[in-house]
Write a structure and sequence with these properties.
This protein is an alpha+beta fold and 126 residues long. It has one domain. A 4-stranded antiparallel beta sheet has the order 1-2-3-4, with helices on one face. Strand 2 and strand 3 form a beta hairpin. The termini are far apart.
Length: 126
């Protein structure tokens, strides 16, 4: 039987340590990548929510202008195609006027399965 020298054992231990360190680094990088992707998704959702809020506010202003131009104005579905706000996202703003109150429902991005929906209501006189 051949006996392993100290150098051979030492090289084996160093190889095992290097493999463990590489595995730890890989796990840390994978965790960082997962977190970065999650943060990116969250930022996109927050941006879309802010856009829906702005669309609802624009819908209120649009309704007030329409009522000022035509006292009989009651309803409109304002469609914003892709390219107006974003390259691929569309938006829909539903405006309803009843008894001196306007209700606006903004959906963004309207072409996605679960758009963000923001509803605002105000008196026409405001």
């Amino acid at each position: 039987m051949k006996r392993h020298s100290k150098d051979t054992r030492r090289r084996g231990i160093v190889s095992v340590v290097v493999l463990i360190v590489l595995m730890l680094i890989t796990a840390m990088v994978a965790q960082y990548a997962r977190r970065a992707l999650g943060d990116r998704r969250q930022m996109r959702v927050e941006m879309q929510h802010q856009q829906a809020i702005q669309l609802a506010a624009a819908g209120l202003l649009r309704a007030k202008n329409k009522v000022a131009a035509d006292a009989e104005f009651q309803t409109e579905t304002w469609q914003l195609p892709a390219g107006v706000i974003h390259q691929t996202n569309t938006a829909t703003v539903e405006i309803t006027v009843q008894a001196g109150r306007v209700t606006v429902v903004a959906r963004y991005p309207a072409n996605k399965e679960h758009p963000i929906k923001v509803t605002k209501t105000a008196d026409i006189a405001e």
